[in-house]
Specification:
Blueprint lengths: L1 E6 L2 E2 L2 E2 L1 H13 E7 L15 E5 L10 H14 L3 E5 L2 H14 L3 E5 L1 E2 L5 E5 L4 E5 L6 E5 L14 E5 L31 E5 L8 H10 L2 E4 L1 H5 L20 E5 L5 H4 L7 E6 L6 H4 L2 E4 L2 H16 L1
Parallel strand pairs: 1-4, 1-6, 4-5, 5-12, 6-11, 7-11, 13-14, 13-15, 15-16, 16-17
Antiparallel strand pairs: 2-3, 8-9, 9-10
Helix pairs in contact: 2-3, 4-8
Bound molecules: flavin-adenine dinucleotide.
The site of flavin-adenine dinucleotide (FAD) has 28 residues, from helix 5, helix 6, strand 16 and helix 8.
Length: 312
């Protein structure tokens, strides 16, 4: 049976759902080995389809750039003769994957939306207009997978655990994290983890209150188009798109967003897309499953009130 490594992803001391998604893909390939650096997270891993947990000891990875993580993964992959290493497609995940590919002289595929039992990946490119199936042909299959692209399988048994002490070179410790500050949060879920994302664009004219109110009643994250972030209406950390974050929630609501190809690149794999736009010709309607032709300042408060009334 092929050995597959997945890198455990955690947000605020909690194992992220994306870890379960990686495990679900890995399960179809072979034995799922979850690699982590924070032992305190181990009990949470039994929620997912993980066969074995590898606890990396002797290095505090929070103090360094991703280089020591990549080195550790390379050593574990070698010791296990791993067929594949699956990592969440975040900026950090992609940096780790890139470094790992260099160390192991392997091929890498990033931003995949799926990988099958034969290690063939699916990617949506050119703003979602083209589906690419690709496979790594040299070395270990190193693949980063977008969050929210599969429903995680539940764990059926407590995984076994083992410890691994990687040998980290001085070179990998050259970039040191001098301080970190948790991002200010308003109690909303993380954008790339959220199952519902409500995004606002230039059509908000800088007033995100109706977008936020609708997001809050649905327990959703708030996203923004680049037009909105460039105008300083919403933080750049919330930008969705080619030069922003990639999201793939169950529900994506685009409010006052035209649907430029660069915006689509970050949200087109959402399971259901709803567009609210006062221009019936807006390109976002070509992509949307449901569309409301209307002014977001009328539509959103009504939708928020209707949901509140239903809940009451
Ligand atoms: C290299 C490059 C990278 C880029 N990366 C990104 C990226 O990562 N993310 C991104 O989003 N963009 C990106 N862009 C910019 C992208 O091309 C668009 O300019 C941007 O997405 C437009 O944002 P928007 O839809 O909010 O604004 P617009 O295109 O101006 O659309 C606003 C929409 O709001 C509607 N509207 C106006 N008022 C209302 C109202 N009251 N109610 C309802 N609807 C209303 C209008 O009908 C219109 O359709 C990139 C561009 C380049 C060149």
């Amino acid at each position: 049976m092929s050995e597959v490594l997945i890198l455990v992803d955690a947000v605020d001391g909690k194992v992220a759902k994306s870890t379960g998604e990686l495990a679900t893909y890995a399960k179809a390939i072979g034995k799922v080995n979850a690699v982590l650096f924070d032992e305190a997270l181990v009990p949470q891993l039994s929620a997912y389809a993980i066969d074995n947990v590898i606890i990396c000891k002797g290095i505090d990875v929070t103090k360094f750039s991703p280089a020591p993580i990549a080195q550790s993964l390379a050593q574990i992959a070698k010791s296990k003769s791993a067929a594949a290493v699956l990592i969440t497609s975040s900026a950090k995940g992609k940096e780790i994957a890139g470094r790992l590919a260099v160390i192991t002289e392997s091929g890498i595929i990033t931003d995949a939306s799926a990988i099958d039992s034969e290690l063939i990946t699916t990617q949506l490119v050119f703003g979602g207009s083209t589906t690419v199936h690709a496979a790594v042909t040299h070395g270990i299959s190193i693949v980063t997978l977008r969050s929210n692209s599969i429903e995680p399988l539940a764990g059926s048994a407590t995984p076994t655990t083992e410890e691994f002490v990687p040998k980290i070179s001085d070179l990998a410790k050259l970039a040191v994290v001098t301080s970190t500050e948790p991002a200010a949060k308003g109690g909303r879920p993380e954008l790339t983890e959220a199952s519902i994302v409500i995004s606002g664009g230039r059509g908000t004219n800088g007033d995100f209150k109706p977008v936020e109110a609708f997001a809050d009643i649905l327990g959703a994250a708030v996203g923004a188009s680049r037009a909105a972030t460039d105008a300083g209406w919403y933080p750049h950390t919330h930008q969705v798109g080619q030069t922003g974050k990639t999201v793939s929630p169950q529900l994506y609501v685009a409010c006052g967003i035209s649907g430029a190809i660069q915006h689509r690149a970050g949200m087109q794999t959402s399971k259901m897309i709803v567009a609210i736009n006062k221009d019936a010709e807006a390109p976002i309607f070509e992509l949307a499953d449901y569309g409301v032709i209307g002014d977001l300042f009328n539509v959103l408060p009504q939708a928020t009130a209707a949901i509140a009334a239903k809940r009451a």
